[in-house]
Structure formats: structure tokens, C-alpha cells
Amino acid sequence: MRLLKGYPELTDLVLQASAIAKSFDGNEILRGLSLDVERGELISIIGPSGCGKSTFLRCLNFLEHPDAGTVRIEDVTLSCTGKHWTRANEAQAHRLRAHVGMVFQAFNLFPHRTVIDNVMMAPMQVKGISRDEAQATACTLLEKVGLSGVKNRYPDSLSGGQKQRAAIARALAMKPSVMLYDEPTSALDPELSEEVLSVMRDLDDDGMTQLVVTHDMRFARAASDRVLYVEGGEIVESGDPDLMFANPKEGRTRRFLRTLL
Amino acid sequence: MNKFFACLVVLALTLAPSVHAVAADEQTAAPLVVPGAKDSTDLPWASDGEANVPYVFHDPEHESRMTGFEYDLVNAIAEKMHRKGRFIQNDWDGLIPGLSRDLYSMVVDGIEMTPEHKAAVLFSRPYYVTSERIILRKDETGLDTMEALKGHKIGTIKDTTAERMLRRQGGSTIRSYEEETNAFSDLRNGRLDAILLDAPIAMYYGSISDDMKLVGEPIGSMEYGIAFAPGSRALRDQVDAALGELIKDGTLHKILARWNLWTPLMENYTGDHTHPDIAPVEWDRYRAAMASTTGNNWKVLVHRYVGFLPLIGQAALMTLAVSALAMVLAVALGLLLALARHYGGAVLRLTAGFYVEIVRGTPLLIQVLFIFYGLPAFGIRLSPFMAGVLSLGLNYAAYEAENYRAGLLSVPRGQMEAAIALNMTHWQALRLVVVPQAFRTVVPVMTNDFISLLKDSSLVSVITLTELSQTYVRLSSTYYDYFGTGLMVGAAYLLLGLPFVRLARMAERRMGRSMGGNVGHH
């Protein structure tokens, strides 16, 4: 299902999610969301609190187990049928996560390891990459996010912006095809947010596919290729950021955007 | 964390063999391996040699050597049988259970041949006949017959003929003691008016100090026999034959006379009415040794305490070895239990929860006795050392499990999520991310637990391990010196605990630094 007109026919869909549904204690949080993502797209997902946008993101790498729906990333597909989360599901989710990186609002850096160890840990432990190689990659990535100077420090001694950039480097070290950001700047002051957002813009220029759940409308409008407006567990509207912000088609989108002004 | 574990393990491993070596050298060593009673030249026998004068006890002149009239007697019997007596120390309450466990083949400890005892074990013919005596403080008068004891506070040993005689007569307040030395202390400080006890004990304890005296005539009569497991009829018959020869050739007479224990009762029992000229050398030697050790001359005291040092050192090593190995077990098993309770499926969670509740809800002493004496019923026979390590380790695992569970709960959920998002498996996430962080909050509690374990290890003295507390009881009751010995043993416990407190502080500091100094930030 294509949502956007004007794109060339069937290019390279790196991620396809269809009919993702999820309830918590009988409350329907996601009502069958579907989304196709082109390789290299930067998509912002906006919407009121509790609309299900974070849950949707967490369903894409199965940190939340959807009750129903299918996710395909690269060549790995996993369908949920509402039954128990099985060992086979977990194994498939493990394969799928190899292509996805995730960045959290609370950073979730490992406080007992230095910054560079945070970046090196997963490549060495999960992929079995040699220490030398992992270190070289980590240095390059930390340089890219501007943290070369603090790579031997422990996370607790960094500023929030530095922490989030370290978290991005840590996710990138696994060489993902898709990066998921769950409100990456909500815990940061505006000037610190800018450090993080500029890293994300750089990644966009490099062709990284990125999905960002955000409350930062300026970033959503200026940096995104596409914006999704989610409310009540479904995608209400989706499209070019300038068009949507200037002239939302749906009443609900308009109301939401108006409350932000 | 790994380094801390490694330290413990290395410590335990380096200590364990040396302790085995030390204990094996010591004549009084508890059976570290279940003895191979198959060796036909070996005659393993047991007694409670803690403050058990003049039966079997530690020679005050040379603390690591055993002596006593029963000790001499068993050696004479063994010699007649062309075998070699091998003494095994056991707690009084464990003596008979040890027989059925096949830890040794006979028990010699002034066991009275009462009908109840005869129903439980197989007895040799009597090797000693004696009666009860009354002991008073020097300043007391009267109270020299059974009748006169009515209306007074009388001390005795529990489960003895003396105790039964007092109960049958009635009218006195009876205090029953486990250790005779405690009864004598209480008589001395006025908590008791008199003591009624077997004549040998009365003589040896009551007449070596100036402030007590034996009064009245010997009362009643009873017989001591050697106890065997009910199935050991053949061995019993051999021992009876040997005992018969010792009576006939005057060896028993000679042994008892040396201990000043040959009495008219024994004359009647053996039919030996001769009066050979045998000096009571052992009796004199004991009195001389006690005279020189019970004095309060500081030179004597210093000399005595210096003599205690090697014994306390060995005991401290044993305490440390048992505690350290038990802690290693507790840490490993506790972690597994905590993970099972925190992350396991329903069955694992329930099983682990059940284990923790059972172990925390029952006394450690019961667990120690159950593992040592109870498990052999299922064919699991453990050496006292192994049983001690196992019971302490299994017990503390339950407490460690709760400690670790709290530690795991203190790690934010986001840490696990971040690790999973980085495509780690659950196990990798636990091992690399969650457990190391949990460990940090857990270290202070663990240190406290280890110190408690060090102290609780005193409970394994009930299964014949010669560790610090048992050594304290033994030394203090031999010399009536609870104060100085207590200070020394207390200091030994403190010294053992100190390095672990420091080790834990170091580990805490190291981890604290790695967290940017913000311990407890999350």
C-alpha cells in the first residue's frame, strides 16, 4: 500500500509494516497500522501523547510484541497471530533486529562501561567482531558524532546531548539498515537537542533510513521526507511535511497542529 | 564483578587443601573422608573429647594430644586385638547417630548401661562400675546424703543416672547441664547448692580446685559399657574377649589405678582383690598440669595463651575454608535462584520461590544436622567438611537470592531494552548489562552476609568440624578460662572478617569510580 503520490513506482522498500495491532489490558493502542518505508527516507511520526506512536515504533523491532500484524525489514519477515510469543518468534525477531538500531528518550547507555565500550560491546559480543576492528569502527563513529574527546569517559559524566549522540553511535556500530528514534530529544534542552538533530540530518545525507517519533515540530517540518500524524492508534494523515503543516487535510491533524501554535 | 568472584574462588581453592592437610595431621581430626572401616588393622572409635575429664580429653600439657582412662583402655583393647585404635571426635548428641552412619565402629564415653540405652545399641560387658557423688562449695555443710538434697538447687548432667535419681526422689530443683564445667561454674558462683555426678567426674573436677569438696558416701551404682551398632555382634564379641583378658591380666586394674579410679566397686566386679603398688601417675600429672594452668600468674597465662595460638590458627583456617567455600556456593546458587525468580517461567519461578521460603523458614542448625545425619538415609554420605560447606552454602544461597533479586529490580528496565535492541540475547543482556549493574547495589549486603556466615559457621561444630567455636568451648572448658580464651577466639573472628570488609570496600570503590562516582544514581 503506497501512501504517497509522486514517488517513482516501487523503488526500494527497506521496511514494510502491515496491520500492526496491539492492546494493553483490553485498551486498543494500535488499530492495524501499516507503513512502507523507502530506503533513505527520514520519517517523523507525530501525534498527541498516548496516541500509540511510541508503541508502534517499539513494535517494529519487537521490543513490544504486536497482537497481530507483519513486519518485514530487509529480507526478514515476522508475522504475529495473537498467540503466545514463541521461541521461534524470538529467534526471528533476533534476526530482524540485526537490521534495526534504536535510540531511546532516556539514552539507556550502559553506565558501567566507558563510552567507547558502550559502542564496542554489541559488535564484539553479538557479531563476534575482533576487538581491533570494533575499536576502529567505534572511533570512526564517535568522531562522526563529535565525541572523540570523551570516548574513555563513563556515561554519567556526559551532558544529555553527548549521551544521546553516544547512543546513536552505539546503535550505528551494528550497521543497521533502519534507525528508530523514540523521542530522542524530549529529555534535552533546545541547544542540546540541536547537537543530536544535526547528527540525524548528517545521517540522512548519508542515506540512512530513519523513523523518528518526536514532539519537535520544527525538526519534523524541516528535516523529514515524510510526516505521519498518528492519533487514536491509527495513521490519520501522512505526507510531505510542508504540505501537511501548511494545509492539513484532516480535521484531527489540523486541531493537533493548532494546539501547538 | 568477575574479579571479585575470582578472588573468592582462588582464596577458597588455595585454602581448602591446606586445611585438609592440617586437619589430617592432627590426631583429633574429624573424619574428613568417610572412614574406610574395612581396613582390618584399624579400630575407629568415637567419644566427645570436649571437657570430658577423666574419660577422654585433651591433655592440658599438650593440647593436641588426647588422653583419659577410656583413651588408655581402648588402646589396650586394640592392642589385644592386634589393631590400632583411631580416635574420632564427635559431639555427645551425635555419638550414637554416628554409629549407625558407620563413621566409626564403637563409642566409648562413659555411656551408662541403662535399659533405654540397651534398647538402642549393642553393649560390651561393663568396663567400669561406679556410683554418684555429691560435690559442695568449701563453705557449705550438710547436704551429704540424697535425702538432704531435698529443697535445694542441684546440678547434674542431662540424661544420666544421677538426673534420674534426683527426679525419682523429687523435692529438689534440678538443673541439667550439657557440659559438667558449666555446672561447676554455677556451683562456684552460687547458682547451685550442690552437684550430683558420676564419681570420676566429681573427683576430677571437684577436688582439683580449693573451693569445692566431695562429701558423703558413694550413692548407688551404675555400669559403663562400650556401645556398638546393633549389627556389630562379631566385633562386640572380640572386644568382650579382649576386655576379659585385660581384667584377668591386671591391665585394667593398672590403668584405673594410674588414674586413681580403682575402687571397691571395681574390686567386687572383677573379683580382683589384690593391692599392687601402682602410683596414680595420671591423676598426679593432671592435678599438676591444672595447678600450673589454673593459676593467675601472668607468666603462666602468657605461656598458656601462646600455646593456644597454633590451635586457634588451625581452627581459624577451618572456619575460613568452610565459610569461603560456602559463600562461593551461596553466590553462584543465589544468582541462579534470583534469575529464575526474576526472569524464569512459571515452574522455575515457583520452584525457586519455594526453595527460598523453605530454607529461610527453617533453622540453620536443623539443616546442618539434616544434611549430615539425615541424607545418608538416601545414600548420600558427606564428609563433615562437605556437609558443613553444603549446608551453609545452601542456606545462604536463599538469602543471597533475595539480595540479588532486589539488585536486579534496581536496574532500570531500559537497560535490558537497550541491550535487546542492540540484538543481544536475553542471556547476553543479563550477563553483560544487567547483572554487573545489579552487583554494585548488592555488594554491601553481600559483605554483611559473609560476616554473618563467618559467625554462623560456628554451627557446623555440631558435625565434628574443629573450627573456632568448638576450639573455644574445648579450651575454655579445659582450663575454666572463658574470658581470656573468649577474647582470643573473638579476635580471631574479627581478623577473619576484616579482609573481606576491605575487599568489598575496594570492589565498591572500583565500581563506584566506573559509574562516574554516582553510585546509586539510577
From TrEMBL, chain A:
Swiss-Prot/TrEMBL keywords: ATP-binding, Cell membrane, Membrane, Nucleotide-binding, Transport
Domain ABC transporter, residue spans: 15-257
Protein's UniProt keywords contain DNA-binding: no
Topology versus the membrane: Peripheral membrane protein
Subcellular location: Cell membrane
Record bears the keyword ATP-binding: yes
Pfam families membership: ABC_tran
Family: Belongs to the ABC transporter superfamily.
Identification of the protein by name: Amino acid ABC transporter ATPase
Naturally occurring in which organism (per UniProt): Gluconobacter japonicus
From TrEMBL, chain B:
Location relative to the cell: Cell inner membrane; Cell membrane
Domain ABC transmembrane type-1 as annotated: residue spans: 316-504
Keywords: Amino-acid transport, Cell membrane, Membrane, Signal, Transmembrane, Transmembrane helix, Transport
Pfam families the UniProt entry points to: BPD_transp_1 (PF00528), SBP_bac_3 (PF00497)
Membrane-spanning intervals of the chain: 315-340, 352-375, 482-504
Membrane topology: Multi-pass membrane protein
Signal peptide: 1-23
Signal found in the keyword field: yes
Matching CDD domains: PBP2_peptides_like, TM_PBP2
The keyword Cell membrane is annotated on this UniProt entry: yes
Recorded family membership: Belongs to the binding-protein-dependent transport system permease family. HisMQ subfamily.
Name of the protein this chain belongs to: Amino acid ABC transporter permease
Organism whose genome encodes this protein: Gluconobacter japonicus
